[in-house]
């Protein structure tokens, strides 16, 4: 009986996403981008083998992201993790070589960053491959095409009617695409995709109508488009509130939102005591029920002694991204009697925006006093309040992490 395979490329670094989490490991609701691809291909019932190219040394992380997929014994047995190379071409070649002992009849090669591929597209490409030997989906080019001079001015207005954009999956008879890749490995040329390699060394590639919903995630905003892959996806918003207070003591720096504010006293705390960032962290974590700052960064842990609160905020931002959430806006109030916050407000907004990977225009920071009332009014303490609005797509939003108990721990 013939066997068929799907090879999903996920060995890239995702640098254009502008965040430390690989785009294939981000979440759409409670399913990672990578697992969503696998589930869609599995739903067709066509494939025996699932090959995933991963960054060198990244198998542990990949298995963690796909832990629910691998719980199925059949998936565990028929999923291969293959370390990629410096280029996509090299990574695909590694994946094909890993498949060679299993002698599949057909392989479909798919970008792991295209989670909205439809079963219909997969079936059509598979059937086209069976009939023609190679097949790929294409979509018309809707933008006007121009050829440029080196100085950036327009050199030629190109007729776009003969041009298309190509998508994945791209299907091939396995022996042919393996042979083509092995030949391409020694010709000194870098190819853009697998159809180019096949066309160079084997023959014609049949095309069929693609799907505009089969988008590729390249930038962060690609995840948050309202309609993808022909599906109607709704935005899910969550609001979180954070509060913190610290005593003001001598011989400490006054940190507010990652900015050192000149003052004779600063916050007392296990870390640098940045009261604003601590309130922001609690608002972010609270919005999606991931505990609080103390549960993630225990104040008794010596690893966090005098640590910059910006580092903690960056860690929390990575958690949000990995769970598929983004910050829509942040509204903050800092309460202190002196010094005045206004001269530092713009820098504080810029610093917070940098760590949250959003625009400063999405952040508001206000300064208030207590009119000489209570500990804050007597210049003995500083308070901060933060409200955060987060969004994701789809109704299945992430649940609380088992590592994030809902218990507050003071003194951070």
**Number of discrete domains:** 2
How many individual β-strands? 21
CATH topology value of the largest domain: Spore Coat Polysaccharide Biosynthesis Protein SpsA, Chain A
Radius of gyration over all CA atoms, rounded: 26 Å
Task: Supply the CATH superfamily name of the largest domain.
Answer: Spore Coat Polysaccharide Biosynthesis Protein SpsA, Chain A
End-to-end Cα distance, whole Å, is: 62 Å
Instruction: Provide the residue-averaged pLDDT.
Output: 88
Total of DSSP H or I helical runs spanning 4+ residues: 13
Q: What would you call the structural class?
A: alpha/beta
Main sheet attributes: strand count, strand direction, barrel closure: 8 strands, mixed
Low-confidence stretches at least 5 residues in length (pLDDT < 50)? 226-232, 395-411
- CATH architecture group name of the largest domain: Alpha-Beta Complex
Shape: elongated
The percentage of residues in β strands lies in 25-35%
Helical coverage, percent range: 25-40%
The CATH first-level class of the largest domain comes to: Alpha Beta
Verbal overview:
The chain has 412 residues and is α/β, with parallel strands linked by helices. Helices cover 29% and strands 27% of the residues. It has 13 helices and 21 strands. Strands 1, 4, 5, 6, 7, 10, 11 and 12 form an eight-stranded mixed β-sheet that branches. Strands 18-15-21-19-20 form a five-stranded mixed β-sheet. Strands 2-3 form a two-stranded antiparallel sheet.
Supply the key terms:
five-stranded mixed β-sheet, 2 domains, Spore Coat Polysaccharide Biosynthesis Protein SpsA, Chain A, 13 helices, 21 strands, 60s Ribosomal Protein L30, Chain: A, 27% strand, 412 residues, eight-stranded mixed β-sheet, alpha/beta, disordered C terminus
